[in-house]
Amino acid sequence: MADLAISLAGLELRNPILSASGTFGHGLEMQHIVAPSAVGGLVSKTVTREPRAGNPMPRICETEAGFLNSIGLENRGIEAYLTDTLPEVAGADTVILTNIGGRSAEDFGELAAMLDERDEVDGLEINLSCPNVQGGRLPYSTDPAVAEDVVRRVRSATTKPIFAKLSPNVTRIADIAVAVECGGADGITAVNTILGMSVDWRTGRPGLNTVMGGFSGVSLKPIALRCAWECVRAVQIPVIGCGGIGTADDVLEFLVVGCAAVQIGTASFGDPGLLGRLPAELSERLDAAGIAAARDVIGSLEVAARTREVPGGST
Ligand SMILES: Cc1cc2nc3c(=O)[nH]c(=O)nc-3n(C[C@H](O)[C@H](O)[C@H](O)COP(=O)(O)O)c2cc1C
């Protein structure tokens, strides 16, 4: 059987497959379907300083090609996470990443400091797609200096590995990747959802109460793959691929472009047991190809020399 173990910013994962934030609860709600020990790691849904009710319904809507959501970071807040969720997570036989979100840059630093004291948490993922309430409600992820500042505050509050989760809703994701690396991130997650909307022309109503929301699922994959590759080329720190991944072949595509690991989001809604099965399927694919270890695939993308010189995405 192929060796699936990987190292990720100092963390040892038994395989490169993690859950994506907000799509698998905090991880343990699903343990009757997927044993935590089956996956490389579990990423919590975004935890904020204060409890949040989230956006009004409808806040999830299916399109012909994927999901739209505008959950609005519904969660019980950091105090409940520390008192109720983390003790449950303590026995989980896998890597635990806590995803944090803030209304201000200070929030991120405070959350990181509170989590730094807790042994149950192996690392932090910073959700830079949250609206910066103090900065015109633009997401932190859209401005390199703002993104770097948030990461720097988290860096100074914790010694745990930190992963900056980037948004695809930018012109040059590589600039943001470089900024978060400068801010002290140990890794990057690429990417969060891409902005979209849907409408029912008969009623004139949008699919989501907030009109616009985050688009995810299989149709996001080519965009996510491109974003991940741009990040891989721009930084030295490891990149976790995320977006539209649903099969072992998808996982391998992200490893080939240079990702050290991947996260599975929307695909788990249609197939909650998927995360538990993927590692074995990954081994099968590698065995069939005669490849001894998943890490041997990482960064094996073959690019023709002259293609590297083409600057943009024109056809
Ligand atoms: C219903 C739903 C809720 C999500 N909640 C969060 C969240 O709380 N924090 C976060 O960083 N990303 C959140 N995401 C984004 C996912 O973690 C992931 O980045 C995105 O959906 C792309 O991956 P996918 O196509 O595999 O779903 C959410 C996605 C969905 C569909």
- In CATH, the architecture is Alpha-Beta Barrel
Mean pLDDT: 95
Strand fraction band? 15-25%
Uncertain residue segments: none
CATH class descriptor: Alpha Beta
Tally of helical segments: 8
Terminal-residue CA separation = 41 Å
- When the domains are counted, the total is 1
Strand order of the largest sheet: 3-16-15-10-9-8-7-4
Helix content: 25-40%
Overall 3D form = globular
Structural class: alpha/beta
CATH superfamily annotation: Aldolase class I
CATH topology description: TIM Barrel
Describe the structure.
- With 315 residues, the protein is an alpha/beta fold.
- It has a single domain, classed as TIM Barrel (Alpha-Beta Barrel).
- The protein contains 8 helices and 16 strands.
- It has helices spanning 77-89, 105-116, 144-157, 173-183, 221-234, 248-256, 267-270, 274-289, and strands at residues 6-8, 11-13, 17-19, 41-43, 60-62, 67-69, 95-100, 123-127, 162-166, 187-190, 194-197, 199-200, 205-206, 212-216, 239-242, 261-264.
- An 8-stranded parallel β-sheet has the order 3-16-15-10-9-8-7-4.
- It is globular, with a radius of gyration of 19 Å.
- Bound molecules: flavin mononucleotide.
